[in-house]
Amino acid sequence: MDFLDIETIKAILIIIGIDIVLGGDNAIVIALASRNLPEKQRNKAILWGTGLAIGIRVLLTAVALYLLQIPFLKLIGGILLIYIAIKLLVDKEDEPEIQAKDGLLSAIKTIVFADIVMGFDNVLAIAGASHGHIELVIIGLLVSVPIIIWGSKLILHFMEKFPILVYIGAAILAYTASEMILGEKRLEPFFEHYHFLHYLLPIASISLVIFIGYLFDRKKVKTI
């Protein structure tokens, strides 16, 4: 695999984008789980908790990559990812319920456990965007995780100030979902016969997600 190839660079940028967009909740978990610790222990909790979480995330993504080789799972995964993209817009005000922990080990366990529970959408999206290359997953995580940890407050601030960023994130997920569906081996002859779907499906997926998110926002404004 050529890392200077345009498709490879595009995949890495999409993975980084997915990580940052879906990493807001993880940043909140890290802050909440370690806030009661002394500063020295807090830094250890963040480093160890995040390090273990990255390792588990890579492992789970590798499992997801393997599972996506099963017939029609890419199709199912793509449809599920569209649902996750819509949920990102509809539930964007939800916050994870995480209690602050006093002990270093408790904080680390909380960070890792919460990452596993909350990271399903992230794992599925990254598995779809990486096109079967686990090295792209690792590169994407190594670049994006430090950004999430050290720039989490900034990211969350900009996402609250500029809601369009959440829509961009949802569009990235919708695009990844369409790529997963188009990559379904069992449907390859169908997509080759109707080649226009390679252009139409990404546009339709993004439009659907943005439209539903827009409708939800309008409905929410009317109820205020």
TrEMBL record:
Which parts pass through the membrane? 12-33, 45-66, 72-90, 111-130, 136-152, 164-182, 194-216
Q: Which superkingdom is the protein from?
A: Bacteria
Q: Which UniProt keywords apply?
A: Membrane, Transmembrane, Transmembrane helix
One Pfam family of this chain: TerC
Q: Does the keyword Transmembrane helix apply?
A: yes
Extract one GO cellular component term from the record.
Answer: membrane
Spell out the subcellular localization from the entry: Membrane
- What InterPro entries would the database entry show? Integral_membrane_TerC, Integral_membrane_YjbE
Keyword Repeat among record annotations: no
According to its record, how does it sit in the membrane? Answer: Multi-pass membrane protein
Q: Which NCBIfam families match?
A: R_switched_YjbE (TIGR03717)
UniProt lists the family membership as follows: Belongs to the TerC family.
What is the protein's name according to its record?
A: YjbE family integral membrane protein
